[in-house]
């Protein structure tokens, strides 16, 4: 049965955030809010977490997982960025964007795109997500909480608790979350490619 954490949207309770972070370090899979929609998150190296996310979302090996980072310094440890791309991403973060970039050796092989050796990264503009990332001190391995055969992500913490009670370990609820996933930009080629148009304004990358 999943633990349910009611967190203040503007002043997240440090003790609660600390408790969630401890559970993630111990292998928990959590549902948490971001600036686009709810996401599933686990520790970076958790094989069990990866497998559970794949099972919940019915994902295949081609899925791009996302490393949700606290800040640009952290993001830079996990992906390779040249100066032009650096400036473009820096101007758009934090925000509702996911960027696909060549991964560094810090990223577990299981998370890489099989052929391209890329990974998704993002920096959310969300108080609760940022508090959790700060407490963890490392990125959260994440995927949008979009269930198979459903067109929109779940937006209510209580509904997530009700529907995923036996497959996640914790639900963080800080009020309504959006229904629009991030805008995804692939920077692994010679030109940026808009892979998905979502909550972030894609025109700056066109």
Strand content: 15-25%
User: How many helix segments?
Assistant: 6
Widest beta sheet: strand line-up? 1-8-2-3-7-4-6-5-9-10
Secondary-structure element order, N to C:
EHEEHEHHEEHEHEEE
- The span between the termini is 45 Å
Query: What structural class do helix, strand and pairing data support?
Result: alpha/beta
The total beta strand count reads 10
Low-pLDDT sequence parts: none
Main pleated sheet: 10 strands, mixed
Relative helix content: 25-40%
* Average pLDDT, all residues: 94
Tell me what the structure shows.
This is L-threonylcarbamoyladenylate synthase. Pfam families: Sua5_yciO_yrdC. GO terms for molecular function: L-threonylcarbamoyladenylate synthase. The structure is a single chain. With 206 residues, this protein is α/β, with parallel strands linked by helices. Helix content is 26%, strand content 21%. It is built from six helices and ten strands. It has a ten-stranded mixed β-sheet with strand order 1-8-2-3-7-4-6-5-9-10, with helices on both faces. Helix 1 (14-25) packs across helix 5 (127-136). The radius of gyration is 16 Å and the shape is globular.
